[in-house]
């Protein structure tokens, strides 16, 4: 793989994490101030984001969005990807509800390890020394950012950790499962139809006409950002990055999600960066620096 492709993959994965992190601020506003439930938010954003992606594919890029569905195996693969996205999103929300966002974010740092474990079994791809070091850096950085050095802020309830672990498993699954589909038919159809299907399944569980949300100019703006940036752009960048780098490395970049959410809160609410948060930010950035170092042929850690 060329250095430019590797850098492009890293950049796309970081962009996705930043979009998700910034979306968290808007999502929190909708959930706390506008009577949205987690299922309201997940179902509506997936349906609308899927439709927007498919419309863009057809009208903006002029691509035939129906042709990939003519192959039954491709169609089934896309539907499975949609279900994986839906379940990962819902279980993450359940983890937050059962504990807190910080605990859920820390549990999600297991995603690259789960990816590495799965790939070591299916593709005999061992975890490299570089990836192992980056996992420690990323997990430690996220831990310091979300706890601010105060370990009592974590809520290690059984339900919270369990839902967080389930979310990490499904997040790893949608990092691996659609890769071949994306290489075959492109990101647009996979993400667009996948999200649309996942959102429709959620809508069956939570019909739109039963939602009791408060629509104001602010809530419309926040929801629009959640859909366009936090869903359409974020998932497109995330799954596009899988064309250039492995699911393990993409998972390592997810650490930028809590980092970007924290930095946005600092600017939005005029907060000060403390010593522990500063140390966490440095560890997350060091994670990217280590990944960018020249590769060595003897990095593999034997499983």
Automatic annotation (TrEMBL):
> Is Phosphoprotein included in the keywords of this UniProt record?
no
Q: Domain EamA, which positions?
A: 8-147, 159-292
Please indicate which superkingdom the organism of origin belongs to.
Answer: Bacteria
What keywords does the record list, in alphabetical order? Answer: Membrane, Transmembrane, Transmembrane helix
Q: Which residues cross the membrane?
A: 12-30, 42-60, 72-95, 101-121, 133-151, 157-174, 181-205, 217-238, 245-267, 273-293
Presence of keyword Transmembrane helix: yes
What InterPro entries does the database record attribute to this sequence?
A: EamA_dom, EmrE-like
One GO CC term of this entry?
A: membrane
Q: What is this protein called?
A: Putative membrane protein
Q: Which organism is it from?
A: Parasutterella excrementihominis YIT 11859
